């Protein structure tokens, strides 16, 4: 009787062998990898990552390389600005369940209040650790629901707007 071997990356990756059009769900459909893909597209990718036996290793390797796209059930991207900060949105939780969503309306109201009190969209995005396009889409009421993790991060942004940096003389 043979002992079952440990899953290996990338040999046992659940997404191994997908066709290029199926991989759109992991990297977006327009070559723009710096913004999270729409929820309906993410859903397909999440199904693979949720049951992938090498999810943790996949995510660790992506972190080392600062890869963008969906790796290990987490959407990763580098900010397209001078900081180049590496950001992550979990789409699949550690126990393998896919991230739940919440109604966007209360979050939109909260973010609108921040904007009315002087916060910029970029500052809100930075404080919440989300992509600025997420804030823009939320304010434009593009989706009735939001990822729970994103909703929590945005609702946690409070207080005074960050002071503007003065241009150096
Ligand atoms: S965690 Fe997701 S992206 Fe990574 S190998 Fe598994 S299915 Fe592919």
Note down, in words, how this protein is organized:
It is built from seven helices and five strands. Helix 1 (20-27) packs across helix 2 (39-50). It has a three-stranded antiparallel sheet. It has a two-stranded antiparallel sheet with strand order 4-5. The mean pLDDT is 81. It has 169 residues and is an alpha+beta fold. It folds into two domains: 20-90, no CATH class; 101-155, 434 Repressor (Amino-terminal Domain) (Orthogonal Bundle). The chain is elongated and about 65 Å long. It is 40% helix and 11% strand. It has helices at residues 20-27, 39-50, 55-65, 105-116, 121-128, 132-139, 148-155; strands spanning 69-71, 74-78, 86-90, 101-103, 145-147. Residues 13-15, 48-49, 52, 54-55, 58, 70-73 line the site of iron/sulfur cluster.
